[in-house]
Amino acid sequence: MSPQTDGLAPAAPPLRRLGAALRAALRAGYDGAAVRQDAMAGVVVGIVALPLSMALAIASGVPPQHGLYTAIVGGAVIALLGGSRVQVSGPTAAFVAILVPISARFGIGGLLLATVMAGVILIVLGATGMGKLVEFVPFPVTTGFTAGVAVVIATLQLRDFMGLSVAHMPERYLERVAALVRAVPTTRGADLAVGVFTLALLVLWPRVSRRWPAPLVALSVAGVGAFLVARWVPDFRFATINTRFAYEAAGGWLPGIPRQAPSFVLPWHLPAANGQPIGLGLELLRALAPSAFAIAMLGAIESLLSAVVADGMTGHKHDPDVELIAQGVGNLVVPFFGGIAATGALARTAANVRSGARSPLSAVCHSLFVLASVLLLAPVLGYLPMASMAALLILVAWNMGEWRHFFHLLRHAPRSDVAVLVSCFALTIVFDMVVSVTVGIVMAALLFMRRMAEVSGVTLVGSEGHPMVEEPLPRGVLLYEIAGPLFFGAAQRAIGVISRVDRRGVKVVVLDVLAVPAVDATGLVNLQSLVARLNTDGIKVILAGVQSQPMRAFAKARWRTRKGRLRIFRSFERGIALARVTVAGEGPTSRAPLGSAP
User: Fold this and answer.
1) DSSP string of 377-415?
2) Model confidence over 101-126: pLDDT tens digits?
3) Cα distances (Å, whole numbers) of residue 444 to 114, 324, 433, 447
4) Domain boundary pick from 405, 433, 467
5) What's the structural domain count of the chain?
6) Cβ(424)–Cβ(440) under 8 Å?
7) Domain ranges, residue 75
8) Are 67 and 56 in contact (CB under 8 A)?
9) Do 396 and 474 have their domain in common?
């Protein structure tokens, strides 16, 4: 049962369909067994999300608890309101490349304000029915920018993975690489050893057992092992969450992660990059607008792509507009509890499905598990090595890059698609995701228009060359077959063929438009110009076989049947019949309405 049929009319506004996925799951027969399945799935996903949420927050330039708060609040809110039964939302790796420069320039306060603004944008997109438009983002664009983001994420982790000392990390990618290369002599052996050991466990553990998630095993073993080695070897020193982060408590500053649930906070009261409260003003909102738009666009693409994958795994169908609104509400609410940007997480969603999730309540259980872990295990989590967190994100970056698809496209895709892929990949690395996706979509659109222009064309058809013309056409009648949409990329090229033909002795030109599914304003202008030129030469024009969209476009443009000049027919046969009688001098004298028979 699709969310659009879960008790609401398919035409119901998206805001009225919020929570339809949850209601559908409950009505489908939600019993004790389903509760147990959702609870177990939530625990499994929570185990994966716990270290990942901290690692993604750190990678985004903020303390780890902000990633945990995102999973707790965002994961529950979005699941309860969303349009997918099994999607799990939270911080994702794709956001890192966007959030790092925001947090560096505007601080945690600016990052949370930008997230609030992105939530509003997502709600507007969903409420206006824009969810389906994400389906039109070309595959080379998504593959290119995803691979580019993966490279950026992996590069950012090298500092913690190798224990490098970098005084200031620049905003631009190439400058970051230069800074990391200069810092290579400062590599700390202990951090590098912990990072390599963790990465090896992450890669090899799934081959040993899939009963326990690899992140749980790898980070636990690496953390305990590194702690014991440090006790035995005094010179074995490595960075941990406790040594890197601290939080303010009643008695001053304490190391690690606060042992408390998310609490309400006004984002504009949080510090900017200079450590002072960022405040709230029109100039600040204007400066944050591009960043908010980037967060919203990436969140929309990421969440809907994840929902499509979940549909393929479960056989259910998500509601894209409802999902966008839910993501918007989540991102609107999360910053008021200290969380960063959230979206549908593909890896956690897939783990949720494989663990037997039945309803959005499994994502709520995942949030409750993360909350319980914060309340019970915060002091222990502070001992996790920074190199282990970096190793986890390096593996995440490798997996999200989809390198098999990337190189397959490079080898086998048409050159135009390869150009889009490589451009998006390079622009994401050198600039950012907004530039990459914008340029990629524009390039893909232009290439699509060129292809459509190549397949659209006009053919002069002889009496024996048209399957619907049984008898030869009389002298003075020319029949042209127009194929393909008459839009601004193809109309002038197609119509130009007719304009260049010798028309001496021609009385009627019949345009067979049976194969024209659509016409736009440029097509109308070019077609109208052709009709005017033919009429000037004393030639009558008949449009035969007009389909529904072109007929509506003609009517909206106030085209009218004009005696001796233009006739428009839905029926191809009626248009040919009129051409015959017109040449024979027996044409009708009455003025017929648009699309009628003579």
Assistant:
1) HHHHHTTSBHHHHHHHHHHHHHHHT-HHHHHHHHHHS-H
2) 899 899 999 999 999 999 999 999 99
3) 29, 24, 16, 5
4) 405
5) 2
6) yes
7) 32-405
8) yes
9) no
User: Alpha carbon of 390 to those of 183, 304, 364, 402, 415: distances in Å?
Assistant: 17, 27, 27, 19, 36
- Under 8 Å between Cβ of 144 and 440: yes
* Separation of alpha carbons 154 and 158, rounded Å: 7
Rounded-to-10 torsion of CA 354, 357, 359, 360:
-80
Residue 271 DSSP label = B
Residue 247 belongs to a domain? yes
Question: For the chain, what percentages of helix, strand and coil (3-state, to nearest 5) are there?
Answer: 65, 10, 30
Question: Tokens in use for 558?
Answer: 């106030």
- Give the number of other Cβ atoms within 10 Å of residue 488's Cβ: 14
Q: How far apart, in whole angstroms, are the C-alpha atoms of residue 323 and residue 132? A: 11
In angstroms, the CA 509 to CA 494 distance is 15
Are 250 and 362 within one domain? Answer: yes
The 3 state secondary structure assigned to 36-95 is: HHHHHHHHHHHHHHHHHHHHHHHHCCCCHHHHHHHHHHHHHHHHHHCCCCCCCEECCHHH
For residue 489, give the CATH number of its domain. Answer: 3.30.750.24
Measure the N-to-C terminal CA separation of the chain; round to a whole number of Å: 49
CA–CA separation, 454 and 446 (whole Å) = 12
Do 42 and 366 meet the contact criterion of CB atoms below 8 Å apart?
yes
Burial grade of 251 (CB within 10 A; 0-12, 13-18, 19 or more): exposed
Question: Which pair of structure tokens corresponds to residue 15?
Answer: 């805001």
Among the candidates 405, 440, 470, a domain finishes at: 405
Say if strands 457-461 and 477-483 run parallel, antiparallel, or are unpaired.
antiparallel
Look at residue 459 in the predicted model and tell me its pLDDT.
Answer: 75
User: To which H or E segment does residue 343 belong?
Assistant: strand 343-344
Task: Give the pLDDT band (50/70/90) at residue 227.
Answer: confident
Answer whether residue 113 is part of any domain: yes
- pLDDT tens for each residue of 311-324: 888 888 889 999 99
Q: Is residue 496 part of a domain?
A: yes
Lowest mean pLDDT among 86-100, 175-189, 573-587: 573-587
Q: Which range (3-12, 307-316, 493-502) has the least confidence?
A: 3-12
CA gap 450, 464 in Å, rounded: 31
CB contact at 8 A, 554 and 479: no
Residue 423 lies in a domain: no
d(CA 190, CA 164) in angstroms, rounded, equals 11
- Both tokens assigned to 22: 């949850």
Residues 397 and 464 in one domain: no
Residue with tokens 């949850």: 22
Residues 300 and 364 in one domain: yes
Which token pair is 386? 């920074």
Let me know: does 215 contact 202? Beta carbons within 8 Å: yes
- Asked if 396 and 472 sit in the same domain, the reply is no
